[in-house]
């Protein structure tokens, strides 16, 4: 899924929109280097950090920096559903656009 959509992390859930974990490309690499092929739930970080979709980028960056993570899950405040994964690359792109840089997807 990550390769198909060209993303570095995905939320892990059990058929709901409320994730219990996040798995990154580095998690997959670490598992492969160990010679194992576990399922996503076995590799996913279970201390999921999330931000509301109405949180500021500053709040998201503060949370990421405090916890030393590169991804947080964006949660819709109205229903508690995950709607996306925000990465450090997304934040860098947003700051670059704000500074007037041309950013391509």
Care to describe what's here?
It contains five helices and five strands; from the N terminus they run αββααβαββα. The protein has 105 residues and is of the alpha+beta class. It has one domain: CBS-domain. The strands form two sheets. It has a three-stranded mixed sheet with strand order 3-4-5. Strands 1-2 form a two-stranded antiparallel ribbon. The radius of gyration is 15 Å and the shape is globular. The model has no long low-confidence stretch (mean pLDDT 84).
List the helices and strands and how they pair.
Blueprint: H1 2-5, E1 9-12, E2 21-24, H2 25-33, H3 40-43, E3 50-52, H4 57-67, E4 71-75, E5 82-87, H5 88-98
Parallel strand pairs: 3-4
Antiparallel strand pairs: 1-2, 4-5
Shape: globular
Number of beta strands: 5
How confident is the prediction overall: mean pLDDT? 84
CATH topology: CBS-domain
Computed structural class: alpha+beta
Helix content: 25-40%
Tally of domains: 1
**CA-based gyration radius:** 15 Å
Strand order of the largest sheet: 3-4-5
CATH first level? Alpha Beta
**CA-CA gap between termini:** 18 Å
Taken as a percent bin, the fraction of beta residues is 15-25%
Largest sheet: 3 strands, mixed
Considering the protein shown, what is the CATH homologous superfamily? CBS-domain
Which spans of ≥5 residues are poorly predicted at pLDDT below 50?
none
| Tally of individual helices | 5
């Amino acid at each position: 899924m990550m390769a198909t959509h060209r993303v570095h992390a995905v939320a892990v859930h059990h058929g709901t929109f409320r994730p219990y974990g996040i798995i990154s490309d580095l998690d997959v690499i670490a598992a492969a280097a160990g010679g194992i092929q576990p399922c996503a739930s076995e590799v996913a970080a279970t201390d999921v950090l999330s931000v509301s979709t109405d949180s500021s980028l500053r709040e998201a960056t503060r949370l990421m920096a405090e916890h030393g993570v590169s991804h947080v899950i964006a949660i819709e405040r109205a229903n508690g559903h995950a709607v996306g994964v925000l990465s450090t690359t997304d934040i860098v792109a947003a700051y670059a656009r704000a500074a007037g840089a041309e950013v391509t997807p």
